[in-house]
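Margin note: ligand = iron/sulfur cluster.
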Amino acid sequence: MQLTVDGLQVQVADGATVLDAARQAGAWVPTLCFDERQAPFGACRACMVAVDGTPKPVPACTTLCREGMVIDTNDPASRRVARTVVELVLSELPSAPAPHTELAQVAARLGVSGSRWSGAVHPVDHDLRHPYLAFQHELCISCGRCVRACDEVQGAFALTAVGRGFEANVAAGIGSGFLESSCVSCGACADTCPTDAITERLLLDGSINGGPPPEAPRLRERR
Ligand code: SF4
Ligand code: FES
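Resulting structure:
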């Protein structure tokens, strides 16, 4: 089908999403809960765009294309929503995300350097029991990508989304941590995490371990 993205005509296959069309047109749409290796989740609302004929911005990652659609990825209202989403997310973190993380890069590209809200922040809570993976729970933005990576990509079902609202987070196993869960050390969760809440221990700065990163072999290859 044919549609228009930011004035450009693009052809997309049936079943394509607005995000697919935008990317095909070379347009940038901010995303936080999206990973192209996973089914769209539609949780973060960072990816809003305007579509002619719809009264409000729509989420690009979960909206299917229609013939003749006219999409504006630079719509000011959509960008305001995205900035607000990112500001809210940042307001809950005890420190700014590391510059290399996807969250930091999305924030920078949106021109968000901090949050105007100074509410409650997640308490620092590190699970360092696993030899290869570290979980810094306070950096979790509940995007669900690690859970889906574990379920859809690896089929290990080691991670579970827990809590709601500000309390939302991810638990490994039944709260016992990666070490006693069904984790197979594939690293899919660390690979997709946009904040480094889950990361390879080898990549961590020694500061959170109280010393240099532990000696450990590389994570296993994914299946
Ligand atoms: S640990 Fe990372 S990938 Fe998992 S929900 Fe939290 S921020 Fe998202
Ligand atoms: S990227 Fe679309 S809702 Fe999160």
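The chain has five helices and ten strands.
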